[in-house]
Amino acid sequence: MNNLKLLLLDCSPRRDNSTSRHFTRHLLPAMAKRFGRDIQINRRDLGAEPLPPITAEYAESLVLPIAEAKARFGSALALSDQLIQELDDADMLWISAPVHNFTVPAVLKNWIDLVVRRDVTFKTTEHGKVGLLRDRPTFVAVTSGGAMFREPSLQPDFFRPYLNAALGVIGLKDITFMHATGLASADEPLSIVETKAGQWLREASFGQTIPSIV
Ligand SMILES: Cc1cc2nc3c(=O)[nH]c(=O)nc-3n(C[C@H](O)[C@H](O)[C@H](O)COP(=O)(O)O)c2cc1C
């Protein structure tokens, strides 16, 4: 049986002490074991190697029909084409990210700006935008310093609604969020993260579409 291909996006600018990277280190291998198939990980370390910001040519191309965009701005679309191919090749997507100012880190926003493309990953219809990528299980391991994702909320959550909308528009709707929060006040944030990972492993669903690809 073929390996499951997983695209991993690491989004923290921090390395060894990164809480989100640590969270993923504790969640991903354990979840992968449960899928019952070997996992082949394609890792994009957006935190360590940020993508370049979008260019004027890329932004111009987005308002043109796809054939004209390719003819006029082909080389300016190369990175976007590559990122979309990486995503489309993957059976699963895993995003490892901290909360930055109530939402996703800028490096992840930049990746999104490069993969959300009219007539390539979504199309516009009279009923709104429709995703063109097949849905696939998407896991988001997110950490925060303060009290995010709680009821009653102490901070506005633009992280989950934003990712649901931005990934949803290209067709990724089966999204599972796992979070470890309140880490700024912890003496040992990495050990809190390990405990939280254990809790999520007991509780997390595998997403709706895992059975069809396992
Ligand atoms: C630029 C920046 C903005 C942040 N904004 C928030 C925020 O809005 N809410 C919050 O709870 N924590 C915020 N934090 C704290 C991080 O979410 C927290 O330190 C997290 O554990 C960092 O994960 P990492 O170690 O993987 O980078 C912010 C941190 C940075 C660097």
In words, what does this structure look like?
Helices cover 38% and strands 19% of the residues. The protein is of the alpha/beta class and 214 residues long. It has one domain (4-213): Rossmann fold (3-Layer(aba) Sandwich), CATH 3.40.50.360. A five-stranded parallel β-sheet has the order 2-1-3-6-7, sandwiched between helices. Helix 1 runs parallel beside helix 7. The longest helix is centred in the N-terminal third of the chain and has 17 residues, at 19-35. The radius of gyration is 18 Å and the shape is globular. It starts with a strand and ends with a helix. The mean pLDDT is 94. The site of flavin mononucleotide has 19 residues, from helix 1. Flavin mononucleotide is lined by residues 12, 14, 18-21, 98-102, 143-146, 148, 155, 183-184.
Average pLDDT rating: 94
- CATH class equals Alpha Beta
Shape: globular
pLDDT < 50 stretches: none
Strand order of the largest sheet: 2-1-3-6-7
Q: Which percent range fits the helix content? A: 25-40%
The name of the CATH architecture is: 3-Layer(aba) Sandwich
| Main sheet characteristics | 5 strands, parallel
Q: Could you state the CATH homologous superfamily?
A: Flavodoxin domain
Query: Element order, helices and strands?
Result: EHEHHHEHEEEHEHH
Number of helices: 8
Structural domains: how many: 1
Q: List the bound ligands.
A: flavin mononucleotide
**Could you please say which CATH topology applies here?**
Rossmann fold
- Structure summary, number of beta strands: 7
Rg on CA atoms, Å? 18 Å
* Beta-strand proportion: 15-25%
Euclidean distance between termini CA atoms: 10 Å
Sheet/helix structural class = alpha/beta
